[in-house]
Design a protein that fits this description.
alpha/beta; eight-stranded mixed barrel; five-stranded mixed β-sheet
Length: 708
């Protein structure tokens, strides 16, 4: 900001000095009266100005045309007209044959005056207000209006001048022109004053570039108004000043409406990534980051069978709840920081430390020579706490329990390895021992999984599946605006089987495709039946699996189902996860085909995947659903609160709806309202219920007006 202020002050001083020097040396300059030379130079400078004006127009029309702001769009439309007026003025004033015969020199000066008046008023109105994003759909409308105004203005300037000249004489016209020129200068200076005035809103440093442009516009206007040797050197210097102003305006608009928003998006993306993958209290990478790292180790191990052992250690502070209860949460937080610092200082090569949330930490050791080596290192870490930990209220002896899983051997996936280590640490606490290595019972588990998969294959044929519906509530009106259809399995012997148990098996076996198609058809049919029964139409949200989403003919299947049922696409919302968009080309093509059907698209569990804002801003989606893991602890964990706030703010800027999942209490609801979250769902409103119960509790009859 200070650098731009210095440049602005320097520009004002340089402009004033140049103007004074030109006035001092006016007599020698006036001796240069080679008309052909002056006309050629005037034509060259005018063409440069026109090029700058066209560049300002092109910057708004062509660059990043899918994401516009009002300032850039309106400036583009404004200078589309300005450069047309400048083009006609330059050619006619320089005496170019074919143009000068239609536009006289007096009319040419009026074209210049009108061009400067339009630029002065336009810049004043556009940059004195706070910039806002604008829909790309309004782009053609703005330019259609601009073209209409340009045509009307050209006709008005040319024909009204001729009529006025015949009726009242040129003296009246010249007087009016001087008045308008003074008004233009006043508007330029008024624009500087209004933009400089900060008010209550912090102004961008890039606005100072706009101010510098206005200074040179004003200086050019002073030259155009000079009563001496009009049409000679003064207009030449006026065009030079205008050229500098055009260049500064081009730079300022680019900085203000393209470069700065791009950097803000980068900063927002970096902040979201940091908050999503780090613990705010300790600054350590969190569980999501560990999961990502574990997946890398597993993938590397599948390719390179010669790599060493990797150990996943989960460490839990014993009796941490007692510390919180007796010393307070501040002391508990301080203890977590001290533990993280003590272990973190001992991290060696091929070792990493993570926060698992609460009083748990993870420690990763890679490329170890054997299991015994891992156990020895784990013992060394526990010995770190033989000396007491210093807190503000004194020194305290603490102990840790440790659970360990080894790759390869104790799990085939990242999730299994971390879960098994977590199981081991809880077993260590139950047994009252310091260290416990996970002991797998893989054969029994494999048999159970195989049996469940066989039952799953026959569940669809035997009509063992059914759907439940959870309402989605609009927070402003507390009105039911949608519902999410969720799959349930009523096993004849096992009873209700949790989706957590059977959905992963269905996805791995490929059964998720026919099951998903059944869910889509059943949910759409139920929604249509409710509409036919006279209830107010609402949208049904349906989750898509990765296998479903990657089907090349998915849009055709969905279109056929909707046509068969007779349900309009606008009442169907397909939910995908961030992981489905990793292959950007395939994902964008699939999403565009689904959007062409008229369906709504939502990103489910947003914040837990790896989507980039660079792709998100161009993705054809309508809504972000904030993952329940962020919402559930939003009142206790400031890190989660910051993530929810950042995601909501970003979604508003991207013109996307925001739905929060897992809302369980009124405190969470109030927080979401404060963040201007659009919709929410969770146990606070209702658990997922069967169709009959949903119909009775949440659907409202469609009110038909008597006139219809």
């Amino acid at each position: 900001m200070r650098q731009e202020e210095r440049k602005t002050i320097q520009a004002a001083i340089v402009g004033a000095v140049l103007f004074l020097l030109i006035q001092i040396f006016r007599t020698p300059l006036s001796n240069i009266e080679n008309q052909n030379w002056l006309s050629a130079l005037y034509l060259m400078i005018g063409c440069c100005n026109i090029a700058f004006g066209f560049a300002i127009f092109a910057q708004g029309w062509l660059f990043f045309s899918d994401k516009l702001s009002k300032a850039r769009l309106y400036t583009s439309a404004l200078f589309f007209g300005v450069c047309i007026f400048d083009f006609l003025h330059t050619l006619s004033f320089a005496g170019i044959p074919g143009i000068s015969s239609y536009i006289t020199s007096e009319q040419s000066l009026w074209l210049l005056t009108f061009s400067r008046l339009a630029s002065a008023l336009g810049i004043l109105v556009i940059f004195s207000r706070e910039d806002q994003p604008v829909s790309v759909r309004g782009k053609k409308k703005v330019f259609s209006v601009a073209i209409l105004l340009i045509v009307l203005s050209l006709g008005g300037v040319i024909f009204s001048h001729s009529i006025a000249a015949e009726q009242w004489g040129y003296s009246w016209i010249n007087t009016l022109k001087h008045i308008v020129d003074m008004a233009v200068l006043f508007v330029y200076l008024l624009g500087v004053a209004i933009i400089v005035y900060p008010g209550k809103i912090e102004k961008s440093a890039s606005l100072l570039i706009i101010i510098r442009a206005l200074i040179f516009f004003a200086m050019g206007q002073v030259f155009f108004m000079n009563l001496f040797s009009i049409g000679e050197m003064d207009y030449l210097f006026g065009m030079l000043s205008s050229g500098v102003a055009y260049y500064l305006l081009l730079t300022g608009v680019y900085r203000l409406t393209i470069e700065e928003p791009f950097h803000e998006n980068q900063q927002a993306e970096a902040r979201i990534n940091y908050l999503a993958y780090h613990d705010e209290l300790t600054g350590l990478p969190n569980r999501r980051c560990l999961m990502q790292r574990a997946e890398e180790i597993v993938q590397r191990g599948e390719k390179d069978k010669t790599q060493g052992f990797s150990a996943f250690l989960i460490m839990n502070i014993n009796h941490f709840k007692n510390i919180n209860d007796s010393l307070g949460h501040y002391a508990g937080d301080l203890l977590l920081q001290r533990v993280a610092e003590r272990i973190g200082n001992e991290v060696k090569s091929n070792e990493e430390m993570y926060s698992m949330g609460g009083d748990e930490f993870a420690f990763l050791m890679t490329d170890r020579t054997g299991v015994e080596n891992c156990l020895v290192r784990a013992t060394e870490l526990l010995r770190l706490f033989e000396t007491p930990v210093k807190l503000e209220s004194g020194e305290y002896h603490i102990s840790l329990s440790l659970g360990m899983s080894i790759y390869p051997g104790d799990g085939d996936t990242a999730e299994e390895l971390i879960q098994n280590a977590d199981t081991a640490v809880h077993n260590a606490k139950e047994q009252g021992v310091e260290i416990r290595r996970y002991i797998p019972a893989m054969q029994m588990k494999a048999k159970e999984r195989f049996k469940l998969e066989n039952d799953l294959r026959r569940a669809l044929e035997r009509n063992e599946f059914y759907l439940v519906y959870q309402p989605q509530v609009q927070l402003d009106t507390e009105e039911i605006v949608g519902m999410e259809a969720l799959l349930r399995w009523d096993h004849p012997k096992r009873g209700l089987v949790s989706p957590i148990d059977f959905i992963p098996i269905a996805e791995e076996s490929g059964l998720i495709v026919p099951i998903g198609e059944w869910v889509l058809r059943t949910a759409c049919l139920q929604n249509k039946q409710w509409q036919t029964a006279g209830y107010r139409p609402i949208c049904v949200s349906i989750n898509l699996s990765m296998r479903q989403f990657l089907q090349p003919n998915l849009d055709g299947k969905i279109a056929a189902i909707l046509q068969e049922i007779g349900l309009e696409p606008c009442y169907v919302d397909l939910e995908i996860t961030e992981s489905m968009t990793l292959d950007k080309e395939t994902a964008f093509d699939q999403l565009n085909r689904l959007k062409r059907l008229g369906l709504f698209i939502s990103i489910d569990d947003f914040g837990t995947g790896y989507s980039s804002l660079h792709y998100l801003k161009n993705m054809p989606i309508d809504r972000l659903k904030i993952d329940r893991s962020f919402v559930s602890e939003v009142m206790e964990d400031s890190n989660n609160a910051a993530i929810v706030s950042t995601i909501t703010s970003m979604a508003h800027h991207l013109k996307l709806k925001v739905t929060a999942e897992g809302v369980e209490n009124k405190e969470q609801l109030q927080f979401l309202r404060q963040q201007h979250c659009h919709e929410a769902q969770g146990y606070l409103f209702s658990k997922p219920v069967k169709a009959a119960e949903f119909e009775q509790a949440f659907l409202t009859p469609l009110v038909v007006s008597p006139s219809s």
